[in-house]
Amino acid sequence: MILVAGSANLDFVVRASHIPAPGETVLGRDFKTFSGGKGANQAVALAIAGGVATTMIVSLGNDAFAAPLEASLNAAGVRLHIKRVADQPTGTAFICVSDDAENAITVAPGANDSLRPDDMIPLADLAQCSHLLLQLETPLPTVTAFAIAARQQGVKVVLNAAPAQSLPGELLALLDILIVNEGELAVVANHAGSIEECLERIHVPCVVVTLGSRGACARVDGQVLKQAAFPVTPVDTTGAGDTFCGAFVAALSHGQNVAQALRQASAAGALACTKPGAQSSIPTHAEVQTFLNSSIAP
Ligand code: RIB
Q: 223 alpha carbon to ligand 1 midpoint, in Å?
């Protein structure tokens, strides 16, 4: 079993020709809501794209926004431990997706900010759990406390350091795996240099860097592994990074090595770019395998 402790957001998405610059108003087109939030997206990716038993600890408001989020997680087969808060709305995200499939996201954390260190107590026994997957859309003290509890029980700790923020050494020292994009890598490394220079400054056993259309790389056991991108025509890149994280950790839990897991995760992330929305775009494990078998990419 893999445990996710993290956020769930209802995504309010509008498509537009381009993402507005500061001070600019853009007349968009169609509007839709989707189930999202980095934690929930990664939990769904673990369960659907990764095919692993997944449990999630999540904080939701007592409002109408929570229902579609619960429904999406339930439909994916994610076992839920919900903290229900009365004084905060369910998390929301406001997303503009441009015609070239890029996005700009503003999150209103709401109930996600109410997740506390002692919310892990119902899951005190982690004997069945191989990995804990965390992100940074819940409070840092909670993320750190969960990482400590997991480490104490021999559970591997994986952090997707998104959205970017600098991390205390105490938290970095608890990690087995760190997953970041290039921007997040620079923030965590506190360095504006090359990927190699940034990687040298981060003392986590395995660091994975997603590079969008340039693929992904990982530094593990002092070796740098590279994975080329799978060519797809992107429609919406929202949730592609989360799909990568879930599929990567699922592959490791199935016994794959880091190189194999990078390939699996890159294929799943690429497929997630071909459909709109976050959780709605996550491919099934079978779809990923078919894509891997048919693709001309490495
Ligand atoms: O990573 C994509 C996610 O970021 C969206 O679903 C949105 O909710 C924000 O958390």
A: 31
